[in-house]
Specification:
single chain; about 30% helix
Length: about 70
């Protein structure tokens, strides 16, 4: 999860038992570099660190994942 919320807000929302995912606080550069205009927004990165897909996670299915990894 990446958000523009403050670290304090994120810490207040996440509780110790919710470690099944990671959260990052963006200062605007990452959102800007990807041209994010909507949320949720996902980025799929391959083993070499190359961005192979990005967009609305609702359109990301197993076929799209297997084609890009």
């Amino acid at each position: 999860i990446m958000t523009k919320e403050t670290a304090e807000t994120v810490a207040d929302i996440l509780y110790p038992g919710s470690r099944s995912y990671y959260a990052a606080v963006d200062d605007g550069r990452t959102f800007g570099n990807f041209g994010v205009q909507f949320v949720p927004f996902s980025v799929l990165i391959d083993k070499r660190g190359k961005v192979v897909w990005f967009g609305n996670p609702a359109s990301l299915d197993e076929k799209a994942i297997s084609q890009n990894l």
